[in-house]
Design goal:
heterodimer; A: 314 residues; alpha/beta; six-stranded mixed β-sheet; four-stranded antiparallel β-sheet; 11 helices; 36% helix; elongated; B: 269 residues; mainly alpha; 74% helix
């Protein structure tokens, strides 16, 4: 089983006396996993550790069963798109990808094929023969992405991969991540843009000041946050009547009728009791309900509850 | 081997004839230019008023005081200390560290690529300077080369240059991995190497230049007033000096490989 997982066991990393991450234990299954946290929370440290660029002060890491201090094995199954916006001087986009693929020990024909395929995947085929130094920020981001995936790794570690991309390129990149995730690969992404994290993630890892605050599927994480009442939006024909019934319950903290008069936004400390009550109201009074949906089980809300600042301001 | 070939290809593309190495080309081509000037001036003065023997001493002095103590030393510093440190400063070393390449092979590949550049530049410069210096003697120079000691002298200078590149290359490659600012380490090595004639016999032997000097075909005395401070030492035999230098270079490279394996990529952030 551990052969298909990325695992951290009591891993700490200190930079001198400065804490990078502390006592992190994690298991990352295949699919898209997002690392979320403010600057300095330890996202990049976690990524550098799992790709062997730095070593843990203590603890053990395994990527598909491989220790990161064996780059000969690890780098065949893992690719890392770092935050460093730097490239060897004088190389074209094609040469950049091709040259590092040759270091993998592949033949000329294989390197050529993979280079062209990776360039096409990130939409840089037309710019293949221009020097990377002449690329725009978005193109540099895409060539880094191409370099990380050109050898077709099982584990893709992507540090802020959407930075600098225009909206079209962003949606293309997100579609690619989804595609890889669906194929059963590990796509480990860090991002500041929480609504995009929300869209793409199968699971999230919330980090704050070097500690893992929460991990798992976002709805599961939200339900674990007991001290924050759950927000639920009910679209129905008689929200006033529903609100009146709800105010009789102790677990309901707040209820607001929607501006269009056809919905009710409520906050409850006990979602299960609310759902039971709603069923009873429907049966008793014939309330017509169009939809019932949690309104704060997204990454942004969970982030605010657990870390305490606006996601967009991170 | 194909991985090593990949490193070599990439390193040669990045470093050989790169614009930022202009000062290294100047260091290498300086003596060639001087020899060319010497040839042209001597031609104008009707083949000069000096002998081939005097010219070979002039070349020996140029070789001892310029090539060994300055040109090759600083050229190797520029080439080899940048192999790792340059990539750390430019924040591009992680691309290598994210390939399934043994760090030992990376060190070896970078060293061989640096050595190839250094050999082309400095062996080429040594040979060209030597051949051009006596060119104005015409057939006498050809005769000196083919039937006299010329060719053997040239062979010795080329061998010493190659050994200097091998030795200093290993020293500076290691400095580039170990030190954030390899220039300080290079300055210490340079002072040590230049103090060599004045050091006690035992300390003399802990240097590269001591062995190289002994392999040179023409000895150049230290000029006054420094000559009174020179401490003479028995020259090391050829069969010890050459394998000894190669062994020292190998030890430094092994240590560099171990250090490269321990190296973390954080670029000081």
């Amino acid at each position: 089983m551990s052969e298909s997982l990325v695992t951290f066991s009591n891993v700490s990393r200190f930079y001198g006396e400065v804490l990078g991450i502390n006592n992190v234990s994690l298991t990352i299954p295949p699919g898209i996993t997002s690392l979320v946290g403010p600057n300095g929370s330890g996202k990049t440290t976690l990524m550098n550790l799992m790709t062997g660029l730095i070593r843990p002060t203590q603890g053990e890491i395994r990527v598909l069963g491989i220790a990161p201090d064996h780059p000969e094995k690890l780098c065949r199954v893992a690719g890392y798109c770092t935050q460093y916006d730097a490239f060897p001087k004088g190389l074209t986009g094609y040469q950049f990808l091709y040259s590092y693929l040759r270091v993998f020990g592949m033949s000329h024909a294989e390197c050529d094929d993979r280079t062209l395929a990776a360039l096409q995947l990130v939409g840089l085929s037309d710019a293949a023969n221009r020097t990377v130094a002449a690329y725009s920020k978005g193109m540099r981001q895409r060539i880094k992405l191409a370099q990380a995936i050109a050898h077709d790794p099982q584990v893709m570690v992507l540090d802020e991969p959407l930075n600098g991309l225009d909206p079209l390129a962003r949606s293309e990149a997100i579609a690619l991540f989804r595609q890889w995730g669906e194929k059963g690969r590990h796509v480990i992404v860090s991002s500041h843009i929480l609504h995009e994290v929300d869209q793409i993630s199968d699971q999230v890892i919330l980090l704050s000041q070097g500690y893992v605050v929460a991990e798992g599927q976002i709805q599961g994480v939200r339900s674990e946050v007991k001290d924050q009442p759950m927000q639920i939006l009910v679209r129905c024909d008689r929200p006033g009547m529903l609100a009146a019934r709800l105010f009789q319950q102790d677990h309901v903290v707040e209820a607001k009728i929607h501006a269009d008069g056809k919905g009710l936004l409520l906050r409850t400390k006990d979602a299960d009791s609310f759902y039971l009550l709603l069923n009873r109201v429907i049966l008793d009074s014939g309330l017509e309900v169009e939809s019932v949906a949690p309104a704060d089980d997204d990454v942004n809300s969970v982030y605010q509850y657990l870390i305490g600042s606006e996601g967009s301001a991170v | 081997m194909s991985q090593m070939g990949g490193v070599l290809r990439l390193e040669m593309k990045k470093t050989f004839l790169s614009r930022r190495g202009w000062w290294i080309y100047c260091l290498a081509l300086g003596p060639v230019f001087l020899s060319l000037m010497h040839w042209l001036v001597a031609m104008r003065q009707n083949f000069g008023r000096h002998s081939i023997g005097e010219d070979s001493v002039v070349f020996a002095a140029l070789y001892h005081f310029y090539f060994l103590r300055c040109g090759i030393f600083f050229g190797c510093m520029g080439i080899f200390s940048n192999l790792f440190r340059g990539e750390m400063l430019e924040k591009t070393l992680h691309y290598y560290y994210l390939t399934p390449l043994r760090r030992e092979l990376l060190v070896a590949g970078k060293y061989v690529a640096g050595l190839a550049s250094a050999l082309v530049l400095f062996v080429g410069s040594t040979a060209l300077s030597f051949l051009l210096l006596g060119r104005h003697f015409g057939p006498a120079w050809t005769d000196y080369l083919l039937h006299g000691p010329g060719l053997s002298q040239l062979g010795s200078y080329v061998l010493v240059t190659a050994l200097a590149c091998i030795g200093y290359g290993a020293v500076f490659l290691m400095c580039g991995i170990l030190f954030r600012n390899p220039m300080i380490a290079a300055a210490v090595v340079w002072v040590w190497e230049n103090l060599n004639p004045f050091l006690p016999t035992l300390l003399k032997k802990i240097s590269v230049i001591f062995y190289l000097k002994n392999l040179c075909p023409v000895e150049v005395p230290i000029p006054p007033p420094f000559n009174v401070m020179v401490i003479e030492a028995d020259p090391t035999p050829f069969w010890i000096a050459v394998p000894g230098l190669l062994a020292v270079a190998l030890i430094l490279l092994v240590y560099s490989a171990i250090s490269a394996r321990q190296l973390e990529i954080s670029y000081g952030e």
